[in-house]
Amino acid sequence: MSRVLNGIVAVCPDLGIGFNGNLPWHPVRLSNEFAHFRRMTSTPSEEGKKNVVIMGRKTWFSIPEKNRPLSNRINIILSRQCKAPPAGAHYLASDFSAALRLLDTELSEEADQVWVIGGSSLYREMMESPATRRLFVTRILKQFECDTFLPEISEDKYRLLPEFPGVPQELQEENGIQYKFQVYESV
Fold first, then answer.
1. Which one of 6, 111, 159, 161 is CB 3.0 to 4.6 Å from 107, fit for a cystine?
2. Which residues have a catalytic role annotated?
3. Tens place of pLDDT per residue across the chain (187 aa)
């Protein structure tokens, strides 16, 4: 079954997505930005199905334990090191291809939208995949120190959509930090 692969990420101007295992702006909380993430990743398009979030092991462990697994979503963790799903995770896959195979086999009846939520190497793999891809990017308009980055969103591979249902177009601001939501689609 061909499905759209969605990636969702918040980036600093230099495409930084993390610092020391946290979001770059940590400990500042962007509650509305987080609510956008939760709404996008947990709202299925088909009743009776659940969205899937695919993340690397480090991303899983960067989520506070009380928030794992991400509720109302099927959580798939990628790891070559783990022999069983980490406590609370629903599925373990050795790599991105194995996770996609899970969707077409074991999860084919219950899985709806697929969301890649990090980290950097997983975003790269998703962005280079031959499938139809969408990137839901929150552009944080302030630079913070970063040690983890999103690969460049190449203009010859992606186009910025003028609008997308459910994604606010106006400039956002929380705790003195401005940001805007953008959606890119593979060409």
1. 111
2. 23, 33
3. 468 999 999 999 999 999 999 999 999 999 999 999 999 999 999 999 999 999 999 999 999 999 999 999 999 999 999 999 999 999 999 999 999 999 999 999 999 999 999 999 999 999 999 999 999 999 999 999 999 999 999 999 999 999 999 999 999 999 999 999 999 999 9
d(CA 128, CA 113): 18
Q: Residue holding tokens 């969707």?
A: 103
Looking at the domain covering 5-174, what would its CATH class be?
Answer: alpha beta
| Amino acid making up residue 173 | E
Distance CA 141, CA 93 (A): 35
In this prediction the pTM is 0.96
